[in-house]
Design brief:
It contains 11 helices and 31 strands. The chain is α/β, with parallel strands linked by helices and 430 residues long. The protein has a 20-stranded mixed sheet that branches. Strand 3 and strand 4 form a beta hairpin. The radius of gyration is 24 Å and the shape is flat. The termini are far apart.
């Protein structure tokens, strides 16, 4: 049961919605039918993420082929909570009767507050991200939508690392700005919307989500109350401090190792450091100050605990080999060789590695690498790279590998590229 304060917060919330689905009819018929059912004006847009901003009276329909040819997205403007309940109920019923969803379909819930109804000013843009992440109950969502737990489009926000190799005192000087939290939109919560005074919850979705009205409403209320409670109680309490202390304790060995190479050797005996492929202590110790920032990133953001790390003194580039990084918050600007990675990969050269359930951006894939269930954006994929059940897009990318299943949304492909059971939407042959 909710308290009166909680009920007031729920009914003072403003909810915007984004529904991804497939329809049995064309866009014009979908517009006509949904407009009648929802009693709203609906605009048809030519492309996804169009410039038109919906309101509570005018929604928009736009093609969104991220889930495959024919996927549609219905985007509403922010509405009072009570009205959003009706829109959710009617839209889900319409999808059940006139369309379908698959594992790539989502329903996004945008949450803000009406300050007048709430009685107290509640500025979402002032949200303390750290306080929110520490206290948000993510397990409640994954219990209801277990298939979304490992989704590359709605990854867990429960990842906090110090920003530098210097630990932060607590409790007097706690600041979320001294820690790194999720920073891009393909997480369960998209904090990039904060400047617009709302946040976007992306957790919900998957095949047949349209059959889960009660669950979706329960979780929408959970989103609202979680946001409200953080906004109205932004002070870090003793429980928050203990959580942060446990995080710092987890990283204590890393922080100590930041200072000198000999400490690093003691704390991480399974990680072999090299310079220009040489392992002599004297040369590694000499170059350690130049390596340690990147090492700190690999230890904290990528979870490195075993493998070979080589520093190329000529290029200043780190090369990683024989590592298994299965909870990789971010790995950026290095060479990855003979590794297994799951997570976010940016601006990396990848050789003979296994990449699963990951998001790759502006990277190069070479030599007998395997990629599965991943999103590959603006990247080069060479011959002998196999991509299974993945989503490839980006006009700056070049594809010469093999695809089995998945969606080739948009990009360039050479004559060496091979596709089997792949849905190709827009391709430029080069």
């Amino acid at each position: 049961m909710y308290t009166n304060e909680q009920l007031n917060a729920i009914y003072a919330s403003k909810i915007g919605l984004e529904f991804e689905f497939f329809a049995n009819e064309g866009l014009d018929e979908v517009k006509r039918s949904l407009s009648n059912v929802l009693n709203k004006q609906i605009r048809i847009e030519e492309k996804a993420h169009s410039d038109f901003t919906p309101s509570d009276e005018i929604f928009k329909l736009e093609p969104d082929n991220s889930g495959g040819t024919g996927m549609i997205e219905l985007v509403t403007g922010p509405m009072p909570f009570v009205e959003s309940k009706l829109i959710i109920a009617k839209t889900l019923k319409w999808i059940r009767e006139n369309g379908s969803t698959n594992e790539r379909c989502s329903i996004h819930v945008n949450v803000a507050f009406d300050g007048k109804k709430l009685g107290t000013p509640t500025n979402v843009s002032s949200l303390d991200i750290g306080k929110f992440v520490l206290n948000f109950n993510e397990d409640k969502i994954y219990e209801a939508f277990p298939n979304r737990k490992d989704s590359v489009y709605a990854k867990s926000i429960k990842f906090i690392v110090p920003l530098s190799g210097m630990t932060q005192p607590s409790p007097e000087r706690i600041s979320w700005k001294n820690y790194m939290f999720v920073s891009e939109k393909y997480y369960g919560v998209n904090f990039s919307k904060l400047p617009k005074n709302y946040i976007e919850f992306r957790y919900l979705g998957g095949k047949d989500y349209e059959k889960k009205y009660n669950t979706i409403m329960d979780l929408t209320e959970h989103f609202v109350l979680s946001l409200y409670e953080t906004l109205t109680d932004p002070i870090y309490n003793q429980q928050d401090i203990e959580k942060l202390d446990r995080i710092l304790e987890k990283h204590s060995g890393i922080v100590e190792s930041y200072k000198d190479y000999q400490t690093f050797k003691k704390k991480f005996p399974k990680i072999q450091l090299m310079v220009d492929l040489k392992t002599y202590d004297q040369i590694v110790e000499t170059f350690y100050p130049k390596m340690r920032e990147e090492l700190f990133n690999l230890l904290t953001k990528a979870g490195l605990n075993e493998g070979l790390v080589n520093y190329d003194a000529d290029t200043g580039r780190i090369q990683l080999k024989n590592a298994e990084l299965m909870r990789c918050f971010e790995i950026k600007g290095i060479d990855i060789v003979d590794c297994k990675v799951q997570g976010n990969i940016l601006n990396c050269d990848i050789f003979s590695s296994e990449i699963i359930n990951s998001s790759l951006f502006e990277s190069n894939l070479f030599g007998a690498s395997d990629v599965a269930d991943s999103k590959i954006e603006d990247s080069y994929v060479s011959k002998n790279v196999m991509c299974k059940d993945s989503y490839v897009f980006g006009v700056r990318g070049v594809f010469s590998g093999e695809m089995e299943g998945g969606i080739f949304r948009k990009g360039r492909a050479t004559k060496m590229a091979k596709f089997e059971n792949t849905e190709i939407i827009e391709i430029e042959k080069i």
